[in-house]
């Protein structure tokens, strides 16, 4: 892989014809070390956010030993990339064949579920995988449905059992599991630490209702990154309230606290370089889009930071929207993306903070989707981990009490 100082150096050296993905391994390693050192429990990496084997190796080297995998393909990928890693199959609806293969061939012992049907499926499939005997080494995590009200992307509809059924499901799961967990997901890009307090209070109610011994509390993902218009509080605040609330839960003496960050571990890992192929007033036609790494920019109106990669451009900027390269009208990104007024065809733009749910979403629709990959040494466009962040809730003359 070619290593350059920054995106401008890549443009000067290669003038890439395809969208180029820029990797920043130092940024991902820093994020991983932050979670490993500061989260008051174990941090699993949610592989779906970015399954790049290069990234997986960076996270492993930085101390992330456990991986949240959600499909048999992710199980195989992580097992072949990191043979020593602990894999946790945290999708609450799995194919029986996936459970059998995961248990038998890849050493997976941790599974999540949110229904008695899935519990039965896990019981039968792991018994088959264990030569006809119910295994005694299963860790089963019951997923609770919690509110996504503080998050930019909801995960509240599809998965999770409600308090009305959680008690019974926890009791039934306790019969099968060697180790019993409760997990949830507050939604992605959670903008308030309170989301986790509220969810953990629901966990408390479920445990009290079930009167079972719980060994693991898994607070899921949802830890935020920094994007234009989305300045979350420092992650230390999230960790602090999670720790305090967890400590007051009625769990086993030797219980463990887990989290499963995806976005927060990899958002800073990638940016991309795109080329402007046409300008129509305040609309720029670029060579990546809704079917490429910019799915979220198109489909959920996510705003990513941008910069023009040309010396001598006008200092005056104006808001632009983007069209991607496919023939689909939906291949459109509203932004607004603030760029110099004299931007023109042939110019290159760097779009930042695309490590999470960016490169991972690429398709080959309409013949696009190829890309070149470079490593760069400069800083990502924003960082939670550099130690120079100001708390956005604290202004010069108003101090908020935590
Ligand atoms: C079960 C589970 N854990 C963790 C994650 C990662 O979430 P995030 O990227 O918001 O941290 C997801 C994302 O969908 C998920 O479904």
UniProtKB/TrEMBL annotation:
Pathway participation: Amine and polyamine biosynthesis; putrescine biosynthesis via L-ornithine pathway; putrescine from L-ornithine: step 1/1
Enzyme type, top EC level: lyase
CDD domains: PLPDE_III_ODC
The entry's keywords: Lyase, Pyridoxal phosphate
Sequence ranges assigned to domain Orn/DAP/Arg decarboxylase 2 C-terminal in this UniProt record: 275-351
Start and end residues of each Orn/DAP/Arg decarboxylase 2 N-terminal domain: 35-267
Pfam families: Orn_Arg_deC_N, Orn_DAP_Arg_deC
Catalytic activity entry: L-ornithine + H(+) = putrescine + CO2
Cofactor: pyridoxal 5'-phosphate
Keyword Lyase: yes
Lineage top rank: taxon: Bacteria
Keyword Lyase in record: yes
Enzyme Commission code: 4.1.1.17
Family as reported in the entry's similarity comment: Belongs to the Orn/Lys/Arg decarboxylase class-II family.
Protein name: ornithine decarboxylase
